[in-house]
Structure formats: structure tokens, C-alpha cells
Amino acid sequence: MARRKDPEGGLPPPDKAPTQSLFAWLRGRFFAGMVIAAPIAVTFLILQFLIGEIDKRVVPLIPAALNPETYLKYAVPGFGLIVLVVFLTILGGIATNLIGRSVISVGDRILSQVPIVRSLYSAFKQLVEVFAKDNTDQFSEVVLIEYPKTGTWCLGFVSSPAKGEIGATLGGEYLGVFVPTTPNPTSGFLMYVDSKEVIRLKMTVEEGAKMILSAGLVVPEFPPAPKPDPKAPKKILP
């Protein structure tokens, strides 16, 4: 394309690309560094808080002869966590043999009969068993359901098909869908929806949880990147 001539008959100088100021350059680099450092710092602070709380409660229970703080002039960070892991491992080993199962069964019956304790104990026991149970059907699928009104869709996780009295009452193929709230996914609603009225998504449960935690700001890539085939021959670069 021909350049426009100036009044004197010459060609004007070519358009120059806008230069970025030093302040804008520094600001961009600062925010880029903050995006990288913020998740690392938050993770470190949370782990530091949890380890400190565990140490504060476990270390005082350790006998003085076994406590390294008795011989050292400073506290050993994470020692309480190590003791807790060892204790839970030993407890799990005891619980797997015949005598251990009998003792735990007696304790379970006693706690289940105390008027106030049994409600809390049974609720937490069922909750722990649900999360500890190795069941691939639990929260294995992310779906969209039309809620709370027509034309409005929300993200949910399939828990299990309707069973027992609920399945017999509803009939048909209904799915139990847990709809978590944002940004606290531990609370939400349990709904039973006709399987024909849900839209099944290809994103993983982890990707769906990240999307809910970020209030929709973190969106998984679509279409998802193809996974490498381990059986495919590797390319050898020349």
C-alpha cells in the first residue's frame, strides 16, 4: 500500500510500534511473579499451620524420655506429625487382626449406646467410611443439571444411582447428584434427577472441583488434550 505524501512531497516516516514504559514493564513482571508465587506461598502457609497445630497437640502427650525436646534446646518441627502417622499405622495394624477387631467392635457398641455421643459418633463414622471407601462410582462423573429454574444450569457430581426406598419410590433411572456451593464445596444440595435430564461432561471430577472453587474462573481445556499412547513408538530426533 502506498504511503501518504506529506505537504512537501516527501514520504512520512513509517509508523512506529508503541513503546512500553518502564513502569508498565515492571508491573507486568510483578503480577506474573505474584501469580507464580501466590499458590506456593498459600500451600506452604497451610501446611505450616497444620503441622504446627498437630505438633502443639501431640508433642505434649509424648513421654519426656521419648521427646527430643527434652534433650535439645529447640523444638523439632513435624515431630508430632511423624508420631501421629506412626501411631495411626500401628492402630491400623492392630485393627486388622482378630483381637484388635474384637476390641474395636466392643468400643463401637459402647459409643453407639451413649445418648449424646452416639449421634456424633455415628455421623462422623459414616462420613469417614464414605470418603475412605475405595469405590470408583462415587463422584466419578461431572454433570450439568437444570437448576434452580428452566434455562439455568449448575455443575454437579454424580454420587450413585437412586437405591433402596428412594429408587423404589421414584422408579425409572434416577441419579443422585451432589451440587456443591461456591466457594465452599463442602456444603451443597443432594438431588435425585432423571438420568435423561442431565448433561454428562467430559471434564474430570478434579477439574470440576477447581471450577467450582474458583467460581468459574478456572475452566478446563476443551477439547481435552489427547493423552499420549504408552504403546506408541517413540520418535527419535535426528
UniProtKB/TrEMBL annotation:
Protein name stated in the entry: DUF502 domain-containing protein
Record bears the keyword Cytoplasm: no
Transmembrane spans: 30-51, 71-99
Keyword line: Membrane, Transmembrane, Transmembrane helix
Domain of life where this protein originates: Bacteria
Lineage: Bacteria, Pseudomonadati, Pseudomonadota, Alphaproteobacteria, Hyphomonadales
